[in-house]
Prior knowledge:
- The chain is an alpha/beta fold.
- The chain is built from 10 helices and 9 strands.
- Helix 3 crosses helix 4.
- The protein is globular, with a radius of gyration of 33 Å.
- The N and C termini lie far apart (90 Å).
- Mean pLDDT is 85; it is low at 1-29 and 31-56.
Amino acid sequence: MSPTSSTTPRTPPGRPAVAPTAPRARRGLRSLVLALGVLLAVTTLAGPQAVATGPSPARATVVLVHGAWADSSGWTDVVHRLQRAGHPVVAVANPLRSLQGDAAYVRSVTDQVDGPVVLVGHSYGGAVITNAASGSTNVTALVYVAGFVPDVGEDVLHIAGAGSQVPVSLDVKAIPPFGEADGDIYIARDRFRSTLGADLTSRQTQAMWATQRPLAYAAASAPTTSTAWRELPSWSVVPTEDRTITPPAHRSMAARAGATVVEVRSSHLVHVSRPQVVADVVRRAADATA
Length: 290
């Protein structure tokens, strides 16, 4: 074959020779650089979470116990805040029939929770958690929200403090078939807002009056038999404008229990009017006892 028929291209004079595969090599290099750039961008945007290992620590379950003349719906705004913080929450339907029976019911709930529990009680619910948590293996903290903190032998009828408006606000109705042997204690309609929720709107308190669940007289007059606050760290949210349990009574009970006290300008229904304050105290108790 003559030299002029060769398939090897000639290099023009003065220009360096380039291998025929060079265009493919350049394309491969550009692809590699692009891929590395994308990987770097994704890693930067993802931040530390992209390299986090293992699950986050489990949060304590918060068990909320309402008091007299209320139901679990009063905790709604507190529940939302605790759930956003990652806490499982159970708002117990407190029977309000007998102190020891109510405590046994709440204890049955906490005993079935897997993991640590922060037990929270409002008003009469404070007396319930005081009895319910004694000897518990998974309750780590008690939080009293405008709650009774009774000692052994005390009942809620006698420790609300001088000046409580409850005695003049009661509307007692017989419980068939017991008649005069027992009674259901309600708060009268014209006294509900001033006694329990003076910082709430009239519309709110009228609805709460209509849906209130009464407290049996037998529950209000029953003595406390166990005091969990002697075994567990406790916190007390004290409303400084409470007309159901007087602020001096709150402070005295909290001091006796060695509770961490958080005072807030609020009525007795502080979990309704100031849910963020209550949720913050519960979270603080959970973190301190984790």
